[in-house]
């Protein structure tokens, strides 16, 4: 049995390396339960790679101590702050939040600061303030003195903020329906300002579509792939797709889900260019490695963990779940389907779409459920239901957004009517399922459940592969 696991890891070395780096970061940041997955996975890894695997797990400990500082809440801090994201807020009073890095004598930390006045995000500021813990190892800094500008630096933060504002204004001008405009602005910028709409989508368990992620990258990549493939050779198309996704990354920013999707797609396209294909699991592992090295502290955030876990769940669990569901909704050869009557073809198509959507939704939920219960103490069955079709319908709104930016705002107007119809589902859900509440779930349970799920899925994939080889 170990030989099958070793073969799986040898095919996906970046996945194993990324997992060990991730667990090492959590362990270095005083998360003791991260040791459980490491010890559970280790016996099923290549023995000859043990020194390297141990190094990957232990490397974050000295690295983070040298480069970062993690003060307790209430600590006085003084340092140089550079922002990489700015958000305008307008709730009870107008203001701006700036997210970036504060460099102190002790090391750097990731922080968010609030200012009632707009400041130049392309400027480094001297900050004196009090640290307040925000999420994981991220901090909110409460300034004690006005920000003192030090020097200008090259940054896309201001350009990115202005572009998002401009797109938002174009949508507001073209879309008369206020709620639909807020929804489309959220899809375009990743920032949903309408709190009522945010709550409605959250109750359905589909609020994740508003966060720029692999969902957006995949749709945009698919659109340009269909466009480029008509007149371009495969390698040149891959180069242009890397350029398109890079431009989209520069526009949208560097959130964990965005970086994951971008790196994974870039590795995939580079494999095409170099004629060295990379498996989706290995591409995901490469994205995990790069993300952990670029910004190791982000590994402590819920968004980072949910993003990688959901994608991994799809890649590992979708196929076996789809094959299981084929016992009730069988997959038929195309020739056999075409021989049936038209209404039978429609029924088969509907059944096939339902089977695939349910397998996809189930794969995500089986992966995320322990983490959701650990962090939020709630599991939404609405999410399992509405994720069968709502993201698919929302993808048309995203596609129309892209076309509207390319061919004119009149498409935004059409999109406004479509989005208004779509949002009636969230405003008045046709069916509302109960939630599962759990007051506490030990992180140790999650730390054991997830590696066991991973090992089971890898064993299944290797078993299927060996069966095909033996049959051939």
Describe this structure in words.
The chain is of the alpha+beta class and about 475 residues long. Among the domains are: about 75-155, Nucleic acid-binding proteins (OB fold (Dihydrolipoamide Acetyltransferase, E2P), Beta Barrel); about 210-290, no CATH class. Helix content is about 60%, strand content about 15%. The chain has 19 helices and 8 strands. The strands form 2 sheets. Strands 1-2-3-5-4 form a 5-stranded mixed β-barrel. About 35% of the residues are buried.
List keywords for this structure.
472 residues, alpha+beta, OB fold (Dihydrolipoamide Acetyltransferase, E2P), five-stranded mixed β-barrel, 19 helices, 8 strands
Task: Write a compact overview of the structure shown.
The chain is of the alpha+beta class and 472 residues long. The protein is built from 19 helices and 8 strands.
Element string (H = helix, E = strand): HHHHHEEEEEEHHHHHHHHHHEHHHEH
Percent range for β-strand residues: 5-15%
Helix content percent band:
55-70%
Question: Which stretches are low in confidence, meaning pLDDT under 50 for 5 or more residues running?
Answer: none
What's the CATH first level of the domain at 76-155? Mainly Beta
CATH architecture of the domain at 76-155: Beta Barrel
According to DSSP, the number of beta strands is 8
Tell me, rounded to a whole number, the average pLDDT: 91
Main sheet: strands, sense, barrel: 5 strands, mixed, barrel
What is the count of helical runs? 19
Structural class given helices, strands, pairing?
Answer: alpha+beta
| Rg on CA atoms, Å | 24 Å
